[in-house]
Amino acid sequence: MSATTTNKSSRRRPDFPSPQWWIRDREGNVVVAQPPNAAILVWLATVVIGWTGLVDGATATTVRDAGRGALAVWALDELLRGASPVRRLMGAVVLVYVLVRLFG
User: Fold this and answer.
1) Which ranges in 1-104 belong to alpha helices (H)?
2) Is 78 in contact with 87 (CB distance < 8 Å)?
3) Same-domain pairing of 41 and 91
4) 15 exposed, middle or buried (CB, 10 Å; 0-12, 13-18, 19+)?
5) pTM exceeds 0.90
6) Nearest Cα to 34, choosing from 98, 83, 85?
7) Residue 4: CB atoms within 10 Å
8) Omega of the bond prior to 35 within 30 degrees of 0, cis?
């Protein structure tokens, strides 16, 4: 058995329902947290703006709605393209939360 084969087999994704299966991508890398993408950065910016109270009235509503939209985009992206099952699950949970807040 060559070193290449050993490396690939040790990095392969565990079989379902192993706990490791939930946090590893198809190449076997642990993928739970990643650097934030643009949608999450927009959401974080709107949260910070809301906390500081820099805006009020209609502008505050617009900022809040933009943040919710950005969070929905992030959640949908994770649900459809998440690198690991836990990331797809996280996207589904956040998307349900955003939709409940929107229509609830």
Assistant:
1) 3-11, 19-23, 38-52, 58-81, 85-103
2) yes
3) yes
4) exposed
5) no
6) 83
7) 8
8) no
φ/ψ bin of 55: left (φ > 0), alpha (ψ from -120 to 50), beta (otherwise): beta
**61 and 10 belong to one structural domain:** no
Q: What is the pLDDT along the chain (104 residues), one digit of tens a residue?
A: 444 444 444 556 566 677 888 888 888 888 877 788 999 999 999 999 999 989 999 999 999 999 999 999 999 999 999 888 889 999 999 999 999 998 98
Residue range(s) defining the domain that contains residue 75: 34-103
The total of other beta-carbon atoms located within 10 Å of residue 38's CB is 11
Residue type, 92: A
The encoded tokens of residue 54 equal: 């820099």
Taken as a whole, the chain contains a residue count of 104
- Residue 30: strand, helix, or coil: strand
Domain count, the chain: 2
